[in-house]
């Protein structure tokens, strides 16, 4: 697989920007490192949240082509709007992008933003959100995944959480249908 210098720089920027904050007063009672690849409920913990940076292939990488296209390709709001993107969703995320206070996504929902360098048909990077079961009804795990399916980072990524906490419904930015 071809890897451009721009994609490597983008990956390095994300690795630096998506690090856990020192704030341990988060609303989540789940330790993302306890989330299994099988989607089991996380174990409660009182320790600070952790972020996984160990390289490994994303367990859903081979299923990306089976996800439905939830939005048309348009300019991404991520990474200063320098990329085109389309959002993909699994069946559990069928309510996306038409969300509201009465339509939170259920555990098992996965949303993936495929990022493309403007004008290119090759995916440069994926940003993903996977909703895991928790005592609060559901917690989001955020992932940064390379085009080859290798996870750069996953867990409660501080930069992702900070922005998605401001989303109008269920930590997700949707649009009316």
From TrEMBL:
UniProt region (Disordered), positions on chain: 19-54
Keyword annotations of the record: Signal
Top-level division of the source organism's lineage: Bacteria
InterPro entries: Cytochrome_P460_sp
Biased composition (Polar residues): 23-36, 44-53
Transmembrane stretches, start-end: none
Signal peptide annotation: 1-22
Keyword Glycoprotein listed: no
Name of this protein: Cytochrome P460 domain-containing protein
